[in-house]
Amino acid sequence: MILWYDFPMKKKIKVGLIGLGTVGSGVFKTLRNFDYIEVSKIAVRDINKPRNIEGLDKSLLTDNPYDVVNDPEIDIVAELIGGLDPAYDLITTAMKNGKHIVTANKELLAKRGEELFSTADEYNRVILYEAAIAGGIPLIMPIKTILAGNKINKIEAIVNGTTNYILTKMDVQGASYEDVLKEAQQLGYAEADPTGDVEGFDAAYKIATLSTITFKKRIKIEKIYREGITKIRSQDMKAANDLGYKIKLIASGKIDENGKADVRVHPMLVSKKSTLAHIDYVTNAVSLTGHPVGSITLSGPGAGEFPTASSVVGDILAISAELGTSDYILPMMRCRHAENADMTDISETENKYYMSINAKNAMGVIGKIGNICADNNISLASIVQKCVSDDNTADITVITEIANEKAMQNAVKLIEQDGNKVNSLIRVQV
Questions:
Q1: CB under 8 Å to 85, separation ≥6 — which residues?
Q2: Separation CA 228–CA 233 (nearest Å)
Q3: Is 156 helix (H, G, I), strand (E, B) or coil?
Q4: C-beta atoms surrounding 192 within 10 Å
């Protein structure tokens, strides 16, 4: 069997890297295994910083990233620094200079992807971004190629390793969010400022891009409902287990037959029968549902030096294989979403709910809660009163049937106005 990379190349493909951090280092080390690829320039913040790369030729390094994007010899630029600025201008400049792009920048794609892909079309360049969604999991290329004949209408995904690690440790140890967060920070799984992860921003960027390419309509990041994990309690983890669920931060997207999209990020009670319930620690997973494939789940390492480098290098090799073969390379991988999706507001959605209430231990309290729910057209699947505390209050756990979000939020207000405290309200996988 002869593979495309067995053929001799007329000239080496020259690659420029912007960033030599964890991912950039993994990319550089991996590309050394390919004789026809030459990393000819690398932009870094500090040329003199010690690096864990054996035999690194420091003459490749520059502290001016425009040296990379303006170099006429470079064919492909890999942007691995993240953020909006200067990444947006660097990528735009590179494309105007005739270079194809590989990026792992989920925030940039979510916030300014429309402009980037428009520029790519204008200058006949390709932007590949396999590493931007789920690290080392092959996802974007399978969706655009092998799964291209499917109409995917539902996504449920765990795409943030930090939050999944925290929730798994809370579940296993019965520990509080605050204690597990500190441990995750000490181990390097969480940043000193973990806001981007624990408040769901990172997952929102990823589901914005994933939904856009899957539904073939632009999903605006500002219209995605986002809720993090900071309010999840160890008591909720135990209650969920008792009810046959695990709590996960789920990035989800659905599109109905009329083309209306419901895209969001929030904690969810996931049935233990579901594959996603058993995705633990820093592992990521993406479940796709559509026709004719049915449901499939892709899982693997969602971050890290070599898993993410695997996706970046795969994109570089995909472009390298096409260079010189056509004036319009990789047509299936190009942007095909020119229309903005009509988005469903969270208040209009229908969900099942888990509600944890601290209520006065008095006759009729469960009946009152039931009546408030009934008045808001909310049917209860179960309601359980557990222990009575020293302050004569009881913990009540409620699971509802499918109900309207706006009605549920109104019921919560009325329950609290009656002198009770709703500690948690978490949506339940349907």
A1: none
A2: 13
A3: strand
A4: 5
Residue 314: partners with Cβ closer than 8 Å, 6 or more residues away: 130, 138, 141
Per residue in 43-75, is it b (16+ CB within 10 Å) or e — as a string? bbeeeeeebeeeeeeeebbbeebebbbbbeebb
pLDDT at res. 336? 80
The answer, yes or no, to whether residue 50 has pLDDT greater than 80, is yes
Q: Does the structure show a pLDDT above 60 at 170?
A: yes
Pairing of strands 260-271, 342-343: parallel
H/E stretch holding 384 reads: strand 380-388
CB atoms within 10 A of CB 199: 17
Per-residue pLDDT band at 1 (split at 50, 70, 90): very low
Q: How far does CA 177 lie from the centroid of its chain?
A: 21
User: Are 104 and 132 in contact, with CB atoms under 8 Å apart?
Assistant: yes
Coil/strand/helix, residue 120: helix
Q: State the angle between helix axes of 177-187 and 161-173 in degrees (0 to 180), rounded to the nearest 10.
A: 130
Q: What is the mean pLDDT of residues 77-102?
A: 98
pLDDT digits (tens, 9 = 90+) for 116-131: 999 999 999 999 999 9
Contacts with 148 (C-beta within 8 Å, 6 or more apart), sequence order: 332
DSSP 24: H
Residue ranges with strand state E in 201-349: 225-226, 245-255, 260-271, 283-291, 294-301, 342-343
pTM of the model: 0.94
pLDDT digits (tens, 9 = 90+) for 28-39: 999 999 999 999
What is the distance of C-alpha 74 from the center of its chain? 31
Give every CB contact of residue 381 below 8 A, 6+ residues apart in sequence.
352, 399, 400, 401
When pLDDT is cut at 50, 70 and 90, the band that residue 10 belongs to is low
Domains and CATH numbers, the chain: 4-136+305-333 (3.40.50.720), 140-301 (3.30.360.10), 350-428 (3.30.70.260)
> What is the model's pLDDT at position 5?
52
Q: What are phi and psi of 263, to 5 degrees?
A: -125, 130
Mean pLDDT score, 229-258: 97
Phi-psi region of 304 (alpha: psi -120 to 50; beta: other; left: phi over 0): left
Residues with catalytic roles: 206
| 293/296 Cα distance (integer angstroms) | 8
Query: Which two structure tokens, joined as six digits, stand for 19?
Result: 């960033």
Kindly provide the b/e burial profile for residues 217-256, where b requires at least 16 CB atoms within 10 angstroms of the residue's own CB: bbbbbebbbbbbbbebebbbbebbeebebbbbbbbbbbbe
Residue 11, pLDDT score: 81
